Amino acid sequence: MIGPNEFNRNARYILVSDFIVNKVSKTTVTSAIMEEFVRILIEGEVKPGDKIPSEQELVKMLGAGRSSVREVLSALELIGIIERRVGDGTYITDNINSKAFSLIMTIVAQNTSVLFEARKVIEVGLASLAAEKATPTDIQKLNGYLLQMKETIDDKEVFTNIDLNYHLHLTTMCGNSFLQNMMIPLSTFLNAWREKSARSKAAREAAVDCHTKILAKIEERDPIGASAAMFDHLNQIQEFFLKEDQKEV
Questions:
Q1: Which of 54, 85, 169, 211 has the most CB atoms around it within 10 Å of its CB?
Q2: What is the DSSP string of 4-35?
Q3: CB environment 191-217: b (16+ within 10 A), e (fewer)
Q4: CA gap 242, 91 in Å, rounded
Q5: Lateral strand order in the sheet of 12-13
Q6: Chain mean pLDDT for the chain
Q7: pTM for this prediction
Q8: Number of Cβ within a 10 Å radius of residue 178
Q9: What is the per-residue pLDDT for 26?
Q10: pLDDT tens digits, one per residue of 19-38
Q11: pLDDT digits (tens, 9 = 90+) for 134-157
C-alpha cells in the first residue's frame, strides 16, 4: 500500500490538460456533474488507477460550484468509484465492479427529490423511535448539540458538523445497529448537501428552530410530534438546498 507521502510509480497520472470534461449547464447541477463523470469513464477518458484533477481544478473545468463538485466526489467515493489518498490526491479505484457502476447509474437517473424522499422515510422514523427510547443522557447530549449550534451560528462549517452529530445521535438513540449501519454512510453522502442547505445564516437559524422543536417533542415522549417536526425540518432543508442549487446553474 502506498503511504500518504509516497509517490506511486505505477499510477497513471492524468494531466489537467488531458482531462477533458464538458461544462455543466443542467438545472440539477449535481446530476449533471455525475453524468459527466459517467461519460468520461464509459468513453475511456480515464481508467482505473488514474489520478484525477483536484477539487479546485474540477470546479474550474466543470464551471460548477465547489459544494456541488464536493458532493459528487463524496458520492463517487462512497460507492467505490474513486478513492482519496491522504497527501496524494484522488484516484479512480483500481477495481471498479459492476455493482459500483449500477449504483452510480441509479444516482444519475434520479434527481435530488428522490434522495430527499428517502431521507424523509428514514429520519422521520428515527425521530419517532428516539422519542420512545430517549434516556436522560440522550436528551442532555442533544441539548448540548443544540447549544453548540446556537453558539456557532456564524460559522457555517462548524455549524454543519454539529448539525450532523445531532442527526447521528438520533440514530444512536434508537439502539438499532441496522439503522446505524445504514444511516452513517447516508449521512456522509448527504453532508455536502447539508453544507449547501446551511449556506445562509437564515437557513442556519431556521435549522436551530427546527432542531429545538424536534428535541421538545422527544423530551415530551411524543413520537408522532417528533416525526412531524422532523418532516417539517427536512422539507425546509430541501427548500433551502434547491434555492442554492439554482444559484449554481
A1: 211
A2: TTS--TTSEEPPGGG---PPP-SSSHHHHHHH
A3: bbbbbbbbbeeebbebbeebbebbbeb
A4: 30
A5: 12-13, 50-52, 89-92, 82-85
A6: 78
A7: 0.60
A8: 8
A9: 46
A10: 444 454 444 677 777 777 77
A11: 999 999 999 999 999 999 999 998
Question: Rounded distance, CA 75 to CA 64, Å?
Answer: 16
CA distance 49 to 13: 8
Element (H or E) spanning 52, and its range? strand 50-52
Average pLDDT over residues 204-227: 97
Residue 150 C-alpha cell reads as 446556537
**Domains within the chain, CATH numbers bracketed:** 12-107 (1.10.10.10), 112-247 (1.20.120.530)
What CA–CA distance (Å, rounded) separates 225 from 230?
9
Q: Please state at what angle helix 66-78 crosses helix 55-62, rounded to 10 degrees.
A: 120
Closest CA to 20 of 67, 52, 65: 52
Strand-strand pairing, 89-92 and 50-52: antiparallel
Q: What is the pLDDT of residue 80?
A: 78
Residue among 160, 2, 155, 132 nearest 67 (CA): 160
DSSP structure string for 70-130: HHHHHHHHHTTSEEEETTTEEEE-S---HHHHHHHHHHHHS-HHHHHHHHHHHHHHHHHHH
Q: Find the mean pLDDT for residues 109-113.
A: 58
C-alpha cell at 163: 448539525
Q: What is the C-alpha separation between 107 and 236, in angstroms, rounded?
A: 22
